[in-house]
Amino acid sequence: MREPDGTQVPLRVVLADDEAMMRAGIRAILTAVPGLDVVGEAEDGAAAVDLVADLRPDIALLDVQMPGTDGLAATEAITARYPDTAVVILTTFSEDAYIARALSGGASGFVLKSGDPTHLVTGLRAVADGGAYLSPEIARRVIDELGASGPRLSRGTAARERVAVLSDREREVLALVGEGWSNDQIARRLAIAPGTVKVHVGSILTRLDVRNRVQAAVLAYEAGLVDGS
Fold this sequence. Notes:
Blueprint: E1 11-16, H1 20-31, E2 36-42, H2 45-55, E3 59-63, H3 71-81, E4 86-91, H4 99-104, E5 109-112, H5 117-128, E6 133-134, H6 139-146, H7 152-163, H8 168-178, H9 183-190, H10 194-208, H11 213-222
Parallel strand pairs: 1-2, 1-3, 3-4, 4-5, 5-6
Helix pairs in contact: 2-3, 6-11, 8-10, 8-11, 9-10
């Protein structure tokens, strides 16, 4: 994130996980990266919501399973009350069943706990810049959780039919949304104005009948516009 004059603004993160060692490991990863600042930590979802209310961070990085108020309920509370704070979910391969609710609750990203630390950093930065992010290792599991009934091949065909209504430029933008790129990054990549990207993204969401960038990203994966391997 940058100020209008181009100055780098530290990305402020609230971290919630009931395991102290996990929090310590994630904190170490983030604080070693210039421009990332862990401004608060919580052991449960209710405390995370309170921290967001007090600190108004850019991102709330939430574990799914926590005592009391879990990460899903916290996600719903944060996105409803504090929309300027984006939510990124920490997940494991065994927690696929929670993905649909997290998406419907407004989560902007999913990062695998056991994945490459660079994916965590990339995901936080993408989401803070207004993008959406799916860890490569869980992209296909997200698709499975959101996909309609029927075999994956049929869902892929249906997804390709849906994106066929888009223009060539809109499909280019959708593919980059699927990779977690922000509007500014897409604008630089395609050599167009950020405002034009914003118009394209709005049109994509409307024409594909999806609620947010994460769901658009899932559709991009399923349609084969992004390599989810």
